[in-house]
Amino acid sequence: MQRLKLQLVLFLSISTCHTVFSFTDGLLPNGNFEQGPKPSQLKGSVVTGHDAIPNWTISGFVEYIKSGQKQGDMLLVVPEGDYAVRLGNEASIKQKLKLIKGSFYSITFSAARTCAQEEKLNVSVVPTTEKRDWGIIPIQTMYGSNGWESFTCGFRADFPEAEIVIHNPGKEEDPACGPLIDSVALKVLYPPKRTRAIC
């Protein structure tokens, strides 16, 4: 009996380790940005290190925003949890993931406009080759209770490893202007298969 328990515990721990390496559904690791930079990696709200936000790599002017933080007379809110990131001019966040080659995925995230009238985001999936799947998403002013909107785009994993990149291609006078990002998630899509049944 003891041997059976030991084998069961060993099997469960191996299974748990496996799910860490192969991503299927849910928030990306630290996809809600609740794990933030160390105080030494922040200058006010500006993130100063490329790897300062756990599980993410950043480039350009990226801010770590706490819910309730003020920008002039505007109060910045976060839809889930306490923290989000803001991408300034030409800034981006990215995360490398192991995927199931040939599978279809959807990327979902929340975004909110903060300054400019026409903010945009470039969402791309960058494999280890030069081929890239991408799309431009316009960020509109939302007149809801919190001003956030959810976006989804899909792609097929042509390689077992790729980087998910969210980039602000804007060039505003104020480099800090840019959309807020939160709750980045990934889901495997199972397309319907043709059957021989007649409807």
Automatic annotation (TrEMBL):
It is found in: Secreted, Cell wall. This is DUF642 domain-containing protein. The keyword Signal applies. Keywords: Cell wall, Glycoprotein, Secreted, Signal. It holds the Pfam family DUF642. Residues 26-187 form the DUF642 domain. It comes from the Eukaryota. Residues 1-22 form the signal peptide. It comes from Glycine max (Soybean). InterPro entries: DGR2-like_dom, Galactose-bd-like_sf, Pectin_Meth_Modulator. The keyword Glycoprotein applies.
